[in-house]
Amino acid sequence: MSLSPAEAPIGVFDSGVGGLSVLRHIRAQLPQEHLIYFADSGFAPYGDKPESVVAERSLAVARFLIDQGAKALVVACNTATVAAIKLLRSNYPDMPIVGVEPGLKPAAAATRNGKVAVMATAVTLSGEKFLSLREQISSTTQAQFLLQACTGLVEQIELGELDSADTTAMLTRYIAPLLDQGADTLVLGCTHYPFVQSAIEGIIARTTTRQVVLIDTGDAVARQLARLLAAAGLENKGSGAARLEGFTSASETALAVGFASLLGLAPPVREVQLPWKNSGLAAN
Fold first, then answer.
1. SS3 call for 269
2. Could you give the domains of the chain?
3. What is the pTM of this model?
């Protein structure tokens, strides 16, 4: 028996395991939806690659997920959203597509002294989409955004080094100057970063007596996905158990460990290799 469009899965992808921080919000808010997660760990990190390369790779991953039957896409990666969300929407205008943006707007609303720190990859912070958003929110709220590119942090999280001495030292090196500049709100501008939130909170507690608010936009992404599915009539209203499966361009064992250690889940995981130089999509 063929599935109805509403019963099709949602495709979620990231450069690695970071997007699992978004996946957990989607599962919490939309427990009836079937999900496919693609960890592009064989091509990671996205954050040190040219924007055009990330855009082309994102198109290839999207094509794979759609070939698996995805009815909607979640770009669970800040860097890929900056590089490719406009391109994905132009290639798939009838498909619900949700990206991840650093939470500048909620951060500007949360700050008490107007100083907001943003931790993200270098590609995210230099992207036209991010810079336009920063300018827009700065002009309307007068918030000052302190930007910090966190080179190497994604790689540490991919290795499972969530609370190691090296990761803590790296985080301290990035966070301490932001706190010294008076930041009272800190945006986790990469989907990997919520997995080191406990370490970040420890550094803040040791560095300042000031209360610092952390902003993670995974919950907002899940809410927007729910709105788009409802608007398109694609909500899965079936009563069966929701399915979850994982794919990766690197080690299936590593992704399985990520699911287990970060979410306490053990879905089936498969390694695949994507052709991506000739994706057949219009890169306009």
1. strand
2. 5-100+218-271 (3.40.50.1860), 104-215 (3.40.50.1860)
3. 0.88
The length of the chain in residues reads: 284
Residue 167, burial from CB neighbour count under 10 angstroms (0-12, 13-18, 19+): buried
Q: Which two tokens stand for residue 60?
A: 């290839």
Helix H or strand E segment including 248: strand 244-248
Active site residues: 77, 190
128 vs 200 pLDDT, higher one:
200
Instruction: Report residue 99 as tokens.
Output: 């990206």
pLDDT tens string 5-43: 999 999 999 999 999 999 999 999 999 999 999 999 999
Phi/psi of residue 224, nearest 5 degrees: -65, -40
Give the integer Cα–Cα distance in Å for 9 and 71.
6
What is the sign of the dihedral through the CA atoms of 12, 17, 19 and 21?
Answer: positive
Q: Given pLDDT bands bounded at 50, 70 and 90, which one contains residue 278? A: very low
